Amino acid sequence: MSDIVIYGTGKTGQSLAQLVKRRGDNPIMYDDEHDGFVPSGDFCGKTVLLSPGVPPDAKGLAKANRCGAHVVSELNYCMPLCKGQVISVTGTNGKTTVCRMIKHVLDKACYISRLLGNGGVPFSSEVADVAEDETVVLESSSFQLRNADNFAPQVSVVTNLAPDHITYHGNYAAYVRAKCNNFLHQNPDQFAVFNADDKDLFIFALHVKSRVVFYSLTDKNANCFLDDDGFVVWNYGGKKQLVKPCFPSPYAHNKSNFLAAVCASVLVGVPFADAVEALADFVFSPHRMQFVAESRGVTFVDDSKGTNVAATLAAVSCFTCPVALIVGGYDKGESFLPLFSALPRSVVFVAAIGQTATRMQKQAAACGVSVQVFDHYKTAVVACRSSVSETGGVVLLSNACASFDMFDGYAQRGEYFAGVVKEVIDAEKK
User: Which fold has domain 290-429?
Assistant: First the structure.
């Protein structure tokens, strides 16, 4: 029996502790707020299993590294224990949707599969029960991929990369390095799936040992793309197939997610046509470009899951009509200059709220964009509603920020927004 330190006492840490016990070793729980869990913080000679919530600058982690402890991520520890094949999806945006799409396809194809990972069921909680004929669809965040230097899924999917979680990682380069662990350690018999419309991913594709598959909305040289007649094309391994899709969403970024899911599904054995057709009835999770209400020619849309600049730019690009945009929230250290310098002309009004509101207003001004700061969501919604009332258009909640300054999560923020919209519409009817 070996002592194994579990660094982090949250959901993943508790799950890791149970797995360690199940394997016959002794888990020792530790976090920086309860140093006594490990006598004197003694990590020497021990394996330390790192929960994803532990930041790189944690004081206990520095201590563990100084004394030469073997620091291992959850993904590293669990991967050798998984008997089934793993599809790991990462990216700044879209990974949850792509994972759910893949699971939807596998279910329809009668595959035995599990959806695990970021924000859901920890990999460590079920990995020991995965059978050889099962497929694990794993959502892998940058937090989980940090220190995952032997992680090698059968299929790696990278949807896109843009600055995010800078406060956690320290800088964008560190964030990217973490994401790269999704594919860097694969072998030549495995697959790395990249979004060809994200030009930075071409560079990463040059450094992989696995077989590279590209998907694209526009690039006809990709392995999976949309042709000019609206067909989804699969062109890989000397075979070219075309299927007319029925997209479950009209928005471009969700069509891109659709292609990513098709690629991953085909690479684990699902016939191409079956994968495309299976997604016709896919239902999106709430708070992702979700219709909230329509009143007097104004549509209200909840994209509270838009928690970074890239996501918000993708959201506003979906509309050609006038858009009143609500932004702001928890400060993750991301610059907002790329947002305000690239806002389309369709955005006619910007309201900012929350911790980042004032910083957003200053950075917007530097780009020649006017932003009004509000203390309450109701006044922001009313102002946005008024700005597009004469022309008709969209009031869009897409914050470009996390929600933890005012809410427990993006879902609570989206639900609050929907409640405020209802209040505003009900008041109009009186």
Answer: Protein-Tyrosine Phosphatase; Chain A (3.90.190)
